[in-house]
């Protein structure tokens, strides 16, 4: 079975290593499933053919011989249901994994993205400076709750799962902000997850096309 995952040919340096096909690449590496990256650019994004695969023109989109889906969370959950490397085989264990994937996307990521958007896309704007303390405070409440749950655990449950993969990917965007330094368990957790060989292989797979397709002035 051939798996295809869409990814960008090139993105600006600030986004390299953070485009969401990395989540799917990492899951595939953990599961030991080979795949082919379908590289797209803005011209391909706008085509009817690509919009039929990914209605919003984003990445990643996924297809194999039986399934065609989009959204990184949905794809990671699909893979988790196929691989015990990403989720336990028992129903209760799988339900917990699904819970943590959705928690990463719904309970944590919106607050992370709110702060990242202010820092990256609106840095220096007066309204963003006024808004940032409130956004940071709201995010810190979520981080404190997550840190309390994690405690001295290595992972969210009793082993690494797709829930950890997704949560680590969400939290990783905060590394440059310094916020994770306030929550030692979370910083160590992200390092533990992203130190896995499968993550390193997935990251390199995403970065290689960016190097190969970098514009001359980039």
Question: Features of this protein?
Answer:
2 domains, Glutathione S-transferase Yfyf (Class Pi), Chain A, domain 2, alpha+beta, Glutaredoxin, 218 residues, four-stranded mixed β-sheet, globular, 57% helix, single chain
Low-confidence stretches are none
Class by alpha and beta content: alpha+beta
Q: How many structural domains in the coordinates?
A: 2
Helix segment tally = 9
- The total of beta strands comes to 4
How much of the residues is beta strand, in percent?
A: 5-15%
Query: How can the largest sheet be summarized?
Result: 4 strands, mixed
Radius of gyration: 18 Å
Instruction: Report, as a whole number of angstroms, the end-to-end distance.
Output: 37 Å
Tell me about this structure.
The protein has helices at residues 21-31, 42-45, 48-53, 72-80, 91-121, 126-150, 162-172, 184-194, 197-212, and strands at 4-8, 36-40, 61-63, 68-70. The protein has 218 residues and is of the alpha+beta class. It folds into 2 domains: 4-85 and 198-212, 3-Layer(aba) Sandwich (Glutaredoxin), CATH 3.40.30.10; 91-196, Glutathione S-transferase Yfyf (Class Pi), Chain A, domain 2. A 4-stranded mixed beta sheet has the order 2-1-3-4. Helix 1 runs parallel beside helix 4 (72-80), helix 1 packs across helix 9 (197-212) and helix 7 crosses helix 8 (184-194). It is globular and about 45 Å long. The termini are far apart. The mean pLDDT is 96.
């Amino acid at each position: 079975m051939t798996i295809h995952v869409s990814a960008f040919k090139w993105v600006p340096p600030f986004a390299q290593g953070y485009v969401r096909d990395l989540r799917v690449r990492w899951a595939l590496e953990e599961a030991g499933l080979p795949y082919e990256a379908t590289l797209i650019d803005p011209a391909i994004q706008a085509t009817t053919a690509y919009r039929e695969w990914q209605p919003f023109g984003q990445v990643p989109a996924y297809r194999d011989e039986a399934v065609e889906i989009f959204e990184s969370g949905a794809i990671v959950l699909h893979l988790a249901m196929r691989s015990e490397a990403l989720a336990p085989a028992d129903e209760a264990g799988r339900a917990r994994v699904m819970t943590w994937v959705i928690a990463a996307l719904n309970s944590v990521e919106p607050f992370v993205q709110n702060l990242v958007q202010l820092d990256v896309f609106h840095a220096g704007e007066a309204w963003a400076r006024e808004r940032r303390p409130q956004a940071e405070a709201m995010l810190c409440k979520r981080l404190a709750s997550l840190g309390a749950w994690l405690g001295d655990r290595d992972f969210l449950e009793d082993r690494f799962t797709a829930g950890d993969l997704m949560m680590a990917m969400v939290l990783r965007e905060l590394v440059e902000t310094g916020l994770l330094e306030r929550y030692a368990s979370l910083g160590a957790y992200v390092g533990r997850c992203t130190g896995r060989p499968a993550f390193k292989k997935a990251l390199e797979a995403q970065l290689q096309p960016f190097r190969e397709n970098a514009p001359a002035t980039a």
